[in-house]
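User: Predict the full complex structure for these chains.
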Amino acid sequence: MARINDVGGTQGFGAIDTTDDPEPFHADWEARVVGLLNALRAQGMFNTNEFRDAIESMPPREYLETSYYERWFKAICVLLERKGVIEPGELDD
Amino acid sequence: MSYWTCGKATWKRFPKVSGDHSDAAVARRVRRLETLLEEKGVLSGARLDEIIDASRSGASPANGARVVARAWTDAAFKSRLLADGTAAVRELGYMDGSYQRLRVVENTEAVHNVIVCTLCSCYPLRLLGPSPSWYKSEAYRSRVVREPRAVLAEFGLVLPDATEITVWDSSAETRYMVLPRRPSGTDSLQEEQLAELVTRNALIGTGA
Amino acid sequence: MTDTDRLAPGTPVRTFHHDPPHHTRLPRYARGKRGVVIEPEGRAELADDSARGLGNARVEQVYAVRFAARDLWGEGDHHVVLDLWESYLEEVPEGER
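Assistant: Here is the predicted structure of the three-chain assembly.
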């Protein structure tokens, strides 16, 4: 079944904002998330394909509403939970 | 909280914190995860800081520009670059130890190339630095494979009708970089000066 | 498809109507479409397998395959190149070329 990330040729996403980013990250937590991905991947917690799979499996509405690096963060959490490293709800307030 | 199961992954809807889905809420969760991982002995804060610093250093579009300037001034290097991009850029010290492959695609009068990853946002980070937000956007990823000429025009790049466009969709392990055309009137310039003429967008194909 | 098959540059190919419930790297816009092999792009673990994290992913040849926009969407003058694992592709039989 085609997933929400598979957008090639899909209509309706509108004009491209071609402006450059002043910084690669909008907030420090984004850089931390990239670091988490690289560190966990390097130590074999999961591989890149598992990571992509987790992002793509997000319900479509949530995927489109979630910012790029927050998708990464959610995917990391789903994988860590699946691997038994964290418990459901452990990150909640 | 509700659960969706889609394939192997089970998704739960993360709670919206009273209408506030701001950076602050996510930042808190990220910090909490870092703390948990340290407490559980999975990943130390020090190790994470090390990884963050390492990935920041060295990746920049100046690298890709340098490769291009070398190709413009050294015909033999250019041949090697187009035949085996991975090996050629290693001559200049880039992509050492990377499992990824690099293919460099040459712009000519007849063909203009542009790069995308429609499925996610694969990008030759080490040669181009961090990818721009537009490259990661659904708008770019959905449209550039379907109507590249219109997309390039939005970037201010209008190509002659006779120039064909090839879009490279990075769907596997190969990462792509464009070798732009050398601007005319630059015969007297040194390699370092030529490198300064190469823009990051030109290396992706949304610039000349 | 075996992982020792080789598709030569210039071979006309067709992608399967591959629509699995799992992770894959054949985009929907290029399923069941005709293209031409440019050249091999190395061997790699099949993403579909690797995403399941079981450690027994098949390793296959990947090919850069060029598609005409007209064959993908019925219109357009450009081409799109995708890097596709061998199990996404079949050679177009002589009689159908």
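Confidence is low (pLDDT under 50) at residues 1-20 of chain B.
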